[in-house]
Amino acid sequence: MISSLRRAVSRALTMLLERKIFSFDGGSYMVSAGVLNPTLFRASLVFAREALNTAGSESIDILELGCGSGLASVALARRDHRVTAIDRSLEATLNTAANARNNGVMVRTICSNWDRALEPDFTFDLVVVNPPFLPSPTPVFNDALWGGPDLRVVEAALKAAARRLKPNGRVLLLTSVRSGRNDVLRAVEASKLVPVTNRIVRHWGEDLHFDLLACASQP
User: Fold this and answer.
1) pTM: predicted TM-score of the whole model, two decimal places
2) Residue whose C-alpha is closest to residue 195's, from 158, 151, 153, 140
3) What CATH architecture is 2-215?
């Protein structure tokens, strides 16, 4: 029994870590070894589709915080949006840059802890954030999955997003029912953002929350 469980865990870890190639919205994507594979966490695919729908058809300036393999960023660039993609992982930013090249689009990639390495005056019409939101640590890809105590990682991501919004800009945030709705709303409030819409998608028996947010008006 124990040996079977170990084999199952080993197979799961191998699937997470190995290089993968997949298609999405007409584009071809490669996931480098050591970068979180979005095809194994279907919420990432749902998020990329929601980002495309939110961005719309008119070309706008978009920032993705925590780009991972670049799925959402490259898909948005393929729709003629002007995209900047940031991740704290060098492997992830290199993976995003490679996927942009392979799809013949331009995505500016930056390795940074949120927006710290981005020029102070750079702002965007839309910031898309699929942050780590699990409420407890994980045995693999912990930085990409765990939201930290009290969802501090989510709050830090939202504060960075708020700093980078143009007037009337918007933030698309993905969280899960497991994130704790009250904690998510507290992070939104702490970031000086206000909810515009909340859409719930039932996925694999779990509620995924898509929050469209905007900057709170200043007094």
Assistant:
1) 0.84
2) 158
3) 3-Layer(aba) Sandwich (3.40)
